[in-house]
Design brief:
The structure holds 2 protein chains of 2 kinds. By secondary structure, chain A is mostly beta strands. Chain A is about 15% helix and about 45% strand. Chain A contains 4 helices and 19 strands. Chain B is α/β, with parallel strands linked by helices. Chain B folds into 2 domains: about 80 residues, no CATH class; about 280 residues, no CATH class. In chain B, helix 1 crosses helix 12 and helix 7 packs across helix 8. The chains are: A mainly beta, B alpha/beta.
């Protein structure tokens, strides 16, 4: 985004760890760095979970030695979150405990409560396991704003699955930062669905600090209309024998613009580590703009890293096959687009959200995929 | 016994390494005494730029171009990406060094010490064996240019840029720095201000030049810059293979190379542009190369980057006509004290255009190898395809290997794929070869040679041998 198009509370921020040519249009993006005091947001109480989960509605007692979310978060924006968050959740999963059911935070923005600034911290003690699902929704046409930060600290051998489903209406603002740190043997699985909002701005930085730690980051995105999606996801391999995978599946239609940057960063000392990043983009309209920057940074000899990106239209032969079996072109496209994103959507542990995502994809194709 | 064998092998390797390093120095690092007939002062001023133009007796439009480029240079910022260029101080660089000879077309008329330099680099010998024409630049001026008689008869022009400005002014004025304008970036603007030497090639419609043309650029003067300009026009249905070689002796002060290459590939024409670059390791190599390819034309880039302290080099292709093609095959080998930032750019600007990128890099002894690329598919480029494969081999953990591609796709009717890998030599492959009787060192060396084979097989035999030799020199210090 050009500097002169920025609003008063927006700033051009660097989105690439390593800058490249300005004409590649991937280095920077405009982001909302602050806002007015959002006031209160209802329901800042304990979320439904078993009694073993320690909960606080503030982060006052949390000791943060390293903030992985800060990698993509400008200081000004961090200060805004620190000061104005109107939903704060600290969840601590005790040592060795497995929370069987997902802990669900349903955050619904409305005309009466249009501003949500949430700050969530999940701390999984040694050997514990938890799934946290955060679901952002708003009604179509409502001017609402979400600004958020979610942090994970997975201690030794803990396993945290974080699912964030951004299902806001297309007029909503959405700026989100995720950071995670995994200690020895810990695992972080992060599933991100960027489906709605006007110009979603999403960041995730996962640090594999301990030996044998793992990260799996699955993302699904939908771009339609004249929306602009900006995503920067990164995994840092710091410990030895760490393992990561980033997988992104996207569908783009109409005049939307998408910028997706994924980075694997193998730090010197991360011997024996392996990482893979993959993005598959389905472009279903002639006017979409699809920007990708699959970056791999390597300062360690004894690693294996690879990335793969594919972008294109639907396979005409398969489309023809489906149409010869009686499906209309739009129905065939819906079916294929649904299949393209299903492997990520299926990782969301809530069938109703899965259905709603696929429904949004289908509706977008009905509306904007006619010309494909 | 095994320990004895290992010790003997290590000793043998050390001996070989020393011999090869000596051979290397002897081959590329020898220096001639400075016998230049004229040098500008250090730094960059309008007076220096005007002086260069006057020395060359250029038309007024070229002087104005130089002065305008200087203004642009002074205005443009340094790049905010890529390797650090903090060591470069233009105030310490001599922009123009004229050797004490004019251009000749007979090696016997070239001053002995310069002729000797090019003979040691094997240029006259290669000319006789396998080339259709040769240009040789020494510091800022071309000292030798020649082309086979039969190509002259077919209308092929191969000469130095200064002669082209005088004798083919209509073409040069129309095309010079139009494809790479001075506004593009700071070092192209610098080039526009102080360019000197380089080659002009014109291949008329339908003419196929069966043997390659080669221009070799030698920078001898310490603390100097070389800013040669290469302009090639391959007319409709014609074809040519152009080879560019470059080297310099090592000094304790920085040298600068900021050349510019502009290639016009007309309808149905084919141009292969091969470069084997072995600058000394005190060189800042900030080079710009671009081709525009018309309908059904083909540009093939073959690029081997071995030398220099810092390189920023990204040959780019603009696929302007329907059915135009670009292939990029590149290798870089980054060792101690080197930061080689290389890659390519492709713009698909017409329907049904095709590009393939195949890049390999090796980094060792603290060297930094960066692969950087952009692939742009413009809205009108329907039916276009692009495929990129980028592989990096790390020899140790003191080194770095970064892959920084970006893709900008603006039409749904395109197919784009990009793959990259980074890693080291697999233990399994080494074990397999050792099980078949190779020592560990031999096994590793064989694997590295296999790694670069897709590049070397694209080169003419002599240059493939040269590239493998350069790799051997680099490897001997590493393997084992």
């Amino acid at each position: 985004m050009r500097q002169d198009t920025l609003k008063h509370n927006e700033k051009k921020v660097q989105r690439m760890q390593t800058r490249t040519w300005s004409h590649s249009y991937v280095n920077d993006a405009g982001m909302t760095v602050s806002g007015p005091d959002p006031g209160s947001f209802p329901g800042n109480t304990a979320v439904p979970a078993s009694e073993r989960i320690v909960q606080e509605q503030n982060l006052d007692k949390v000791s943060i030695k390293e903030d992985a979310a800060g990698f993509f978060l400008p200081g000004e924006a961090g200060a805004f979150l620190d000061q104005y968050a109107n939903r704060r959740h600290y969840l601590r999963i005790p040592r060795g405990y497995t929370e069987k059911d997902p802990i669900v935070l349903d955050l619904h923005l409305t005309g009466e409560n249009p501003d949500l600034v949430d700050d969530v911290f999940i701390e999984a003690e040694e050997g514990s396991q938890v799934t946290v699902l955060i679901n952002y929704t708003s009604k179509e046409g409502q001017e609402v704003r979400h600004y958020g930060r979610t942090r994970i600290l997975a201690h030794r051998n803990a396993h945290v699955k974080l699912v964030k489903a951004q299902m806001l209406g297309k007029t909503a603002a959405h700026t989100d930062f995720i950071g995670g740190i995994a200690e020895e043997g810990a695992q972080m699985d992060v599933v991100l669905a960027e489906i709605g909002a006007k110009n979603p701005f999403s960041s995730c930085n996962l640090v594999l600090k301990g030996e044998d730690s793992k990260a799996e980051l699955d993302a699904v995105y939908l771009g339609d209309g004249q929306r602009s999606l900006d995503m920067s996801y990164r995994v840092e391999h710091r410990g030895e024998k760490t393992l990561s995978r980033i997988t992104a599946k996207g569908v783009l239609l109409e005049q939307c613009k998408k910028t997706f940057r994924d980075t694997l960063d193998f730090i010197s000392g991360a011997a024996g580590s392996r990482g893979r990043e993959e993005e598959n983009v389905l472009m279903l309209s002639p006017d979409v703009r699809n920007l990708s920057a699959p970056v791999m940074l390597c300062g360690e000899e004894n690693v294996e890293g690879d990335h793969a990106l594919s972008s294109g239209r639907l396979d005409e032969k398969i489309l023809f096959y489906l149409m010869s079996r009686g499906l209309s072109e739009v129905e065939a496209k819906k079916l294929l687009a649904e299949a393209a994103v299903s492997s990520v959507v299926e990782k969301i542990p809530d069938e109703s959200i899965q259905i709603r995502i696929q429904d949004r994809v289908r509706k977008a194709i009905e509306k904007g995929g006619q010309t494909a | 016994m095994a320990a004895d064998r290992k010790a003997k092998e290590a000793e043998k390797l050390e001996r070989q390494k020393a011999m090869l390093e000596e051979a290397d120095r002897e081959r590329f690092d020898f220096r001639d005494q400075d016998q230049s007939s004229f040098k500008t002062d250090k730094g960059l001023t309008p007076e220096i730029v005007t002086e260069i133009s006057k020395m060359k007796n250029e038309p007024e439009w070229m002087l104005q171009h130089r002065l305008r480029s200087l203004e642009i240079y002074n205005r443009l910022p340094m790049p905010d990406w890529g390797p650090s260029l903090d060591e470069l101080h233009m105030d310490d660089i001599v922009a123009y060094v004229k050797p004490n000879t004019n251009m000749k077309s007979d090696w016997n008329q070239v001053p002995g010490y310069i002729k000797n330099t090019f003979e040691r680099l094997g240029i006259p010998q290669a000319e006789q064996k396998s080339l259709a024409g040769v240009g040789a630049q020494y510091d800022s001026e071309v000292v030798y240019h020649n082309i086979r008689e039969e190509l002259l008869k077919q209308g092929v022009i191969y000469t130095d840029m200064e002669t082209a400005v005088r004798e083919h002014e209509d073409i040069v004025r129309r095309l010079f720095m139009k494809l790479v304008p001075p506004e593009e970036h700071k070092f192209v603007a610098l080039h526009g201000a102080v360019w000197s030497g380089g080659s002009f090639v014109y291949v008329p419609e339908g003419v196929h030049v069966d043997f390659p043309l080669q221009s070799y650029f030698r920078l001898n003067a310490a603390g100097a810059g070389q800013f040669e300009h290469t302009l090639i026009v391959v007319e409709k249905g014609a074809s040519v293979h152009f080879i560019e070689g470059c080297s310099a002796p090592g000094y304790n002060m920085l040298n600068l190379h900021a050349g510019c290459v502009e290639l016009y590939v007309r309808e149905g024409a084919t141009l292969r542009y091969s470069t084997i670059e072995n600058w000394s390791k005190n060189m800042m190599n900030l080079n710009t190369k671009r081709a525009v390819v018309e309908k059904n034309g083909t540009i093939e880039w073959i690029s081997g980057t071995f030398g220099s302290h810092v390189t920023m080099l990204y040959p780019s292709s603009i696929l302007k006509g329907e059915g135009a093609r670009s292939t990029f095959t590149g290798i870089s080998f980054s060792g101690k004290g080197q930061n080689l930032d290389t890659g390519t750019k492709v713009v698909h600007a017409a329907p049904n255009t095709y590009s393939t990128i195949h890049s390999r890099s090796i980094s060792k002894d603290g060297g930094i190898a960066v692969y950087r690329s952009t692939v742009d598919i413009l809205p009108q480029a329907v039916g276009s395809k692009s495929s990129a494969v980028c592989e990096s081999l790390m020899m140790d953990s003191d080194s770095r290997s970064d892959t920084i591609p970006s893709l900008d796709i603006r039409t749904d009717e395109s197919d784009v794929g990009h793959e990259a890998k980074v890693g080291r030599i697999s233990d399994e492959a080494v074990f397999y070869l050792m099980a078949r009787g190779l020592t560990e060192q031999e096994a590793r060396a064989m694997i590295v040679r296999g790694f670069v084979e897709p590049i070397s097989r694209e080169l003419p035999l002599e240059y493939a041998v040269e590239m493998n030799r350069l790799i051997n020199i680099e490897l001997e210090g590493t393997i084992g």
